[in-house]
Amino acid sequence: MENAVTRLRVPRVVRRERVVLPPMLYGVQRRTQSGLEPWTPSPAEPWDARRAAHLLRRATMLPAWQDVQYALTRSPGDMVRELLRAMPDAGEPGSWVSEIAPRPTTVDEENAYRSGNAARMNELRSWFVNRMVSEQRSIRESMVLFWHRHVTTEASVVLIPQFLYQQNMLYRDFALGNFRDMMKAVNHDPAMLRYLDGEINVGGNPNENYARELMELYTMGEGHYTEQDIKEAARCLTGWRLDEFTSFEANFSPLHHDSGNKIFMGRTIVGRSSLDGRFEGDEVVDIIFEDPAVARFICRKLYLAFVYNNPAAVDGAVVEDMATLFRDNNYEIAPVVEALLSSQHFFDNVNIGAMIKSPAALLIGLARQLGAHPGGDRIAADMRTLEEFLFNPPTVAGWDGYRTWVSTTTYPYRKAFAERFITGQMPGGNGQTPMDIVAWGKQFPGFNDANALLDAILLLLLPMPVSSTRRESFLQSMLGGAPVYEWNIDAPNADANLRNLLVRIVAAPDFQLH
Fold first, then answer.
1. Tens of pLDDT along 15-70?
2. CB half-sphere exposure, 218, CA atoms < 13 A
3. What is the pTM (predicted TM-score) of this model?
4. Smaller CB count within 10 Å for the chain: N or C?
5. 147, 360, 413, 420, 459 from 56: Cα distances, Å
6. Is 84 helix (H, G, I), strand (E, B) or coil?
């Protein structure tokens, strides 16, 4: 008997604007002449709390005060290597990640199945946020988020939370691993097969959606392949099938694979009619990675993520050196990230405090820096309001980032959400439990010295020193009109005065930077 619910997979037309990258900067156009050579502290540029905080702001989801203090007990190079160390397994959002549901046979069963999947997607978002908030001194979550933004899928298309959990775990496995091997795994990642129609890419009727984005968005960028290369790559990638009611793994079907020979980027890929046909996609990736454009393309993305997120101001000389190192290390990510975070260019004053905080950096950073986590559900919902909806990028090209994060729509919310961490309130009603600001203040050395406390707070929350005029204004907010020598963090009015100070700091334009 035929099921009451029939799923039809029809090809999607993936429409988006062409991704045209601005030219990189070379020679006298560069913002600074520093390069990838290792940074060495000096009397003029010491390894101090300001630079330690800079490293941790970029490599992690923003540091707490104790993280900055810890970094000062290490050399810059040792701290970078520690950030790149392997971390324990992230755990699961729930037992449902491996639970296969029975195939719905009625409309009611189908509706219940979809409702359950939607709830689990929210659990997955909350789990991802909680992982980012609770991560210790490690770059792992930043790298998982980097891949999540780069090799994108949309939950609204994929619909199966187990597929997206597996993809997130794939990005964890390869966070600092081999980029070429990761892309081979992405070829048959269930979330990607569902998202870009790989599961209906069959011999005799190839679907080109994934093959196109594999080259244009994920590995090379425009201008390094032809339309015929897309067609031939799509033929190589035929044969992968999905059925979430029997398994959460993709399976390869030789019957659905194009077993003919293909000519891809001038190279012949011999077709196979057996299970060995599944390796043709690996050959596609291997051939793509012979082009130096791959290293340049991904290193540019790493530069935007960790140094300066203005697409029109990427330093071409630094990216070229990164790309050379990337190729020399057989496309291993860790050596490139280590060199970048240890470089003169990274610690150059022109790059400190130069990046606009993404919604993730803003909200997860507040939870970490203020020690006031309102829960993964809350932060994930607020990130969506700020236009970074985890597992649902606006297009297959991901999020534009940079100045698009701050608009006339999002900026008032960015300020209101930040204030809610401090006061517990937003205009129109209560929001969350406010931070214990007196306990938080007591983590700083000399917390009963008003000047010392203010300087520590400003160093933690703002990426650059403030002018003497601004500092004096902040100090008066903290003192509430009292003389500086009367400051006592246990005084009855200290709680309200500290909250007033933090509200002013998070409302400052430079709080939006890191």
1. 556 778 899 999 999 999 999 999 999 999 999 999 999 999 999 999 999 999 99
2. 26
3. 0.96
4. N
5. 19, 15, 25, 24, 13
6. coil
